[in-house]
Amino acid sequence: MQLDFVTREVTIKLVYYGPALSGKTTNLQMLHKAAAADSAGRLMTLETRDDRTLFFDLLPLTFRQDKGLAVRLKIFTVPGQVIHASTRRLVVQGADGVAFIADSQLAETEHNAESFLDLKQNLKDSGIALKNLPIIIQFNKRDLPDIRSDTEIAELAAQGQEPVYLATATRLDGVVESFIGLLHLVLKSLDNEHKLEEKFNFNRSAFLLQVAQKLGKNVPLAALLKARVGSNIGKAGA
Fold first, then answer.
1. Which one of 24, 58, 133, 166 has the fewest beta carbons within 10 angstroms of its own beta carbon?
2. Distance of CA 224 to CAs 18, 44, 174, 177, Å?
3. Across all residues in the chain, what is the average pLDDT?
4. pTM (two decimals)
5. Does residue 141 fall inside a structural domain?
């Protein structure tokens, strides 16, 4: 997190991580598409033949509470291919939170596991323990055949600490919910560490609701947070 006391602006870095072609770039593209024109900056994408993202996407979204902090969200993706390990390690440095985008297809189970271990190692190399970083897991591509069942994913979610979401990013299903879930954890963590509410009168719930509305979700915040698998919002620092 970067905090500018003069402009009263805080910059938060979020990283979308996961195996190649799991839907990281699609998540960002759909967030950008859903965002209100006054909130979305330019979406930058670098593409290659073997994967849609060579380095990363940078999606700046800025929101301001009345007479309070401006929050700038910088959202990155990492390249999933094995050959770009050094780039993933660089991009994840300084991350305030991570959305791990898993591919729901049964054939991709091993790749999901390898990518998650890669994330864990890169965080360790950056001096960050996985358990200390806000993380959500999204199982994407729920519209495809031969995918892990809802029951299996619910069982996995019950065993872990990270909130789990189901998504079909190409249809925007679960994309905003996953994003709000991650931002919820990140803001709670940052407020605990930096006392944003106490020092800047920062209303976390009101801000999250504002972000959701700017992304086209005009529903109560509680409904968005309950979108996670199992809807157990008492876990993972919720």
1. 58
2. 23, 28, 10, 6
3. 86
4. 0.90
5. yes
